[in-house]
Amino acid sequence: MSLSLSVVVPMPAHSSLGGPLSYRSEFPLAPGTLVRVPLGRREVLGVVWDAQDSAAGRPESADLKQVAGVLTGLDPLGPRWRQLVSFTANYYQRGLGEVALAALPPQLRDLNAQQLARRVKRPAPDAQGTPPPATQEPTPEQQQALAAVEAGTGCFLLFGATGSGKTEVYLQAVQRLFAADPQAQALVMVPEINLTPQLEQRFVARFGASDVVSLHSGMTHPQRLRSWLAAHAGTARVVLGTRMAVLASMPRLRLIVVDEEHDPSYKQQEGARYSARDLAVYRGRLEGAKVLLGSATPSLESWHACERGRYRLLEMPSRVGAAQLPSVRLVDMNLQPHKTVFSPQLLAAISARVARGEQSLVFLNRRGYAPVLACTSCDWKSECPNCSAFRVFHKIDRTLRCHHCGYTERVPRACPVCGNVDIAPVGRGTERLEENLAELLAGERRPGGEPVRIARMDADSTRLKGSLESQLAQVHAGEVDVLVGTQMITKGHDFRRITLVAALNADSALFSSDFRAPERLFGLLMQAAGRAGRDGARSGNSEMWVQTWHPRHPLFTALRKHDYPAFASQQLAEREQAGMPPFGYQALVRADARTQEAAQAFLASAAAAAAGLEGAGSVTLYSAVPMTVQRVANVERAQILVESASRGVLQRFLAAWHPVLQATREKGLIRWAVDVDPLAI
Ligand code: ADP
Ligand code: ZN
Ligand code: ZN
Fold first, then answer.
1. CB 3.0–4.6 Å: which of 107, 199, 298, 565 could bond 221 by disulfide?
2. Which of the listed residues 144, 168, 196, 261 should we mutate to test ligand 1's pocket, taking the one with most ligand atoms within 8 A of CB?
3. Tens digit of pLDDT for each residue in 445-454?
């Protein structure tokens, strides 16, 4: 007997939208079974997709290639997992095989059945057993949120102030789930696991190392495989991961937590550009699992969904342990002398904290020493030869580095154009800020009379493995008085000794062409404020300082009152008027080409050919434009925005447009990609 079956295989982008390929098998294989099949000259990993029918007598069956091997010993991937993958591929306009295979651990591709069997059998390396779960007595607000989650179904938005104890709610929601159903599984997603080593420790401490596995891109392939197998087998009851974890196979998934649900890093920026937050909500519905989204500054999409009654709002406005939110102080930079970096008020406030033995945090979203190096006598600037951007001056190793393409050179001794030796940094990054502060605070003393200790944390200072953890440990141990850094230091950390946070140069986002820039800035500033005064005993006079040229901007008015709802309603009103998300739906098509003309011409001809397609009458296609950073690594980039008032219409239009895009030829075009629900326009 011979059966024909459809198998999903990895295919290059855009070519496999037609779905799975047919293969022949001598015996029936359940949908979801992992197989090895020939593809061209290679043998690849595939997933059996549909039920098979008998191929006997069918004329084409003789041409079908035979399945080469079956990864026995592994339960087939379940129907709901397959549906999640199908949905993801359809919604984000990518190939089924690409999405399915990207959701599996990479090492699975290289293993044959015997090698896999050895790994499946091997017990988890840990055997510590279940620990005495040290549960904190929930606060009344936590209690209320937990009760609502326990009793309810669907999707919840936990709108909890920074320091209100959201993490404890996640932990206890999972505990209650296990108490009701010891077999259940929970998926807990965080934006960037590396930034919050504390969180992993808290979950392991609560549930035991054998119950908790992690899934994120910082792991080695064998580690990822081990975690994935434990999740798939159901032996790991908690999967703690970044966006990729949303596609993990978890047969008994009952609860999904998305911490800091507003964070842009939930959106995948290559391949299938999915939003793991949105997929979590979809998956929850699919699996009948509860979904708990948490944030102090929810995305406007989620906030709006609460207003519409689609999500249930759970509020925790108070901080745990009588801790106060910091008071917000705005410094009007119009009143400062020209070129002021630190206003005297802010400097005095930091000095006072140092003298009292308290910690301050100063952040600036720009790493390196200075964003530009410029000649003082001609108009040479440190442009990147490959990108439409400046290379950043890093004083530490005297290099000019492009933050887009990575191109790095030693700083020239003299201006490459006119030979002038006087070339000077313009503007300021975290390195320079650290240097400035060290000079300005040189005379200040700690309570014991010792000099002030300044440390810097950003992508540069934490590049080496383990350096992030050791720097964080120093801050927690009180070995640092002033911490300077990028937004990396504003996220999630439970700093106990910081009582002052200062934001420099926040203004640029106020007038950005990206309509989401104010939302991101507000979130960032609220998160940053959230690092100050977390310990009730020292929080009484904690402060958040913002230096700005626009102190009367409504964003700052809302920030002063820690009033996210006011900010959200003002933003939502603007968005509604303009028909922007969440009141309208968007997609971008991006094109990369040798020349900007080619990139735009490709988009323009695909747009011209879109007239008459299904839904075309109800979508708006804007003109093709260069991207903000137009050229990266000598590739020219352009994009076209597509908008519709209806998600369904946009989806149908994109599906109809896809083959048109595929068929559109343009000399010099390198690649194109669709971004559905893009975060940056
Ligand atoms: P969030 O995530 O909302 O910013 P966390 O979950 O980090 O807040 O909690 C802030 C601090 O309060 C943490 O140090 C945490 O251990 C503590 N905490 C949380 N819940 C309780 C509780 N019920 N009793 C005592 N301390 C708590
Ligand atoms: Zn010059
Ligand atoms: Zn570059």
1. 107
2. 168
3. 999 999 999 9
